[in-house]
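Continuing the batch. This is chain 6 of the set; chains 1 through 5 are on the previous pages. Same settings as before, nothing changed between runs. Recording input and output for traceability.
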Amino acid sequence: MSTKSGANEKAQASTVRVFIALAPPDDAKEELARELRPAYEAYPRMRWNRIEDWHITLAFLGELPVTAVPLLQPPLADLAATRPPLRLALRGGGHFGDRVLWSGIGGDLEGLHLLASDVRAVVRECGLTFVDRPLNPHLTLARARRNDPSCAVEAAAGLASFTGRPWRAERLHLVGSNIGRGPGPIHYRDVEAWNFGGEEALKAP
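Output for chain 6:
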């Protein structure tokens, strides 16, 4: 192993890419996946995200030292304990630029924005800095390749009339990823997740 590659691996091992999110339940994701079947077949070369990785990002913190992550866990647990589940739905679709395909979110958007605001306040109170972009609730579904951008636009049009069933977002997720930093798909894992409403915290194995 070269000195340079060894240094890169050490740097990656000491940091983790982190965000705080909600995740739809499996049956809601499966409903959307059924709606996407024509697009899966029509655009197989798109970089489709894994269904198990679909999430609604509340705060993207980017690359953090691994030692910073434990600072977030107690206050996020406390925040989740004070909040009821949110009633949401997957709805419609769209695209960022001409390459990123997404599904929209309906339901209690006021509650969702309030939760995101409070999550970001917790992060700042922990002394962590991040880019505080306005919340645009969505699920990122796929990315078109640079030489075939129109497929994201066309796939979004196919989702325009989609209205998924309502569901409850019952957990707040602290998510990390150090996988898939190359051209392939990014895979995520829960660092920890907490039930809303004071229920017992659920730790990832």
